[in-house]
Write a structure and sequence with these properties.
CATH topology of the largest domain: Jelly Rolls
CATH superfamily of the largest domain: Jelly Rolls
Shape: globular
Structural class: alpha+beta
CATH class of the largest domain: Mainly Beta
Helix content: 40-55%
Distance between the termini: 27 Å
Strand order of the largest sheet: 1-3-4-11-6-9
Strand content: 15-25%
CATH architecture of the largest domain: Sandwich
Length: 328
């Protein structure tokens, strides 16, 4: 699924006896393994999913007949990247259960769950919910602290919760905002808004001070964002800038599910991908764009781009705009 489109999956086009298995297979491929217990007979199963990519974040708007979804202990140990799932209720009621807590969701309310632990999503009377999938590495808050605010209902208690609920609802329910360039432009601000909200909860519970240096992870990630385009961005440089050892840098990042090299590489590639898609960049060579984002070896950049996106930089550029005068 490309970043400029919304893919629709609808069970109504399938024979009733095939719907449950088809849904399980689709979820396992596109979102993550989940056991689904339908609360209606096979002929009454109705599920419609609209999936979009928002930069590094995923969005799934789901409507269905009654069901319960469970991520088991075994599924939570799979090799998919650690992710926070934010369930935002559109209508009706739902429930998020994790780590012994239960969050009842009413319209406009939302709760988190952590894919590295078992969880349950219960929609006995039907589901009408937006799900945001945010990589744990993007949140850059202590993982242990985030786990303690999962399955906690949010959305009405504070102005920050209301702001997040309104923003995420608007993005999810406006087709023009969840596709094309708008989706890419809104991805990072949306993540930052969620991060700011979660940081207030972490601070309120005193979790960010257990110990105080855990909050350094957020500063490290922000430093990496600011210096992403610089070729000499390295573990040694980052550690020196924060007066810590390289070893401790890796410890901090690992606690938030961040692999340093992969993080830098993925975000540099994403910036190159966005730059290559802009009509205003047609007069700039691919090699120049790659160098601008820290790739000093054009051949290495081309291989990495193809491994990540399935096409070469030149092929990607050609699909975004007429290639009549594009420089090499």
């Amino acid at each position: 699924m490309g970043a400029t489109m919304t893919a629709i999956w609808d069970a109504s086009s399938m024979p009733p006896q095939e719907r449950a298995d088809a849904l399980r297979e689709f979820l396992g491929t596109e979102i993550g393994p989940l056991e689904v217990d339908h609360k209606v007979p096979p002929q009454d199963i109705q599920v419609r999913l609209a999936l979009s990519d928002l930069g590094s974040t995923g969005l799934c708007s789901a409507r269905s007949s009654g069901l319960i979804g469970r991520r088991t202990s075994k599924q939570a140990r799979d090799d998919t990247p650690p992710t926070l799932v934010l369930a935002l209720q559109r209508s009706g009621t739902g429930m998020v259960l994790q780590s012994g807590r239960e969050a009842v969701l009413r319209p406009g309310e939302f709760a988190l769950c952590d894919t590295t632990l078992p969880y349950t999503l219960a929609f006995q009377q039907g589901m009408n919910t937006h799900f945001y999938f945010i990589p744990l590495s993007e949140v850059a808050l202590p993982h242990d602290a985030l786990r303690r605010i999962c399955a906690v209902s949010m959305g009405e208690r504070t102005p920050m919760e209301g702001l997040a609920s309104n923003h995420l609802t608007r993005v999810a329910e406006a087709p023009e905002l969840r596709t094309g360039s708008y989706a890419e432009q809104l991805a990072q601000p949306s993540v930052e808004l969620v991060r700011a909200l979660l940081a207030t909860h972490v601070d309120h519970l005193g979790l960010a001070r257990e110990p105080l240096h855990e909050s350094m992870t957020g500063r490290i990630v922000e430093y990496m964002r600011q210096h992403l385009a610089e070729p000499d961005l390295s573990a040694t440089r980052i550690a020196r800038a924060h007066n810590i050892s390289v070893r401790y840098l890796y410890v901090l990042l690992e606690r938030s599910g961040i692999s340093l090299g992969d993080w830098i590489r993925a975000r540099r590639l994403e910036e190159c991908r966005k730059a290559l898609a802009k009509p205003t960049s047609r007069a700039v060579t691919i090699a120049s764009i790659a160098r601008r984002w820290g790739f000093t070896d054009p051949a290495h950049f081309s291989r990495a781009f193809r491994e990540t996106y399935g096409v070469t930089p030149r092929e990607w550029r050609a699909t975004r705009a007429p290639a009549t005068s594009a420089p090499r």
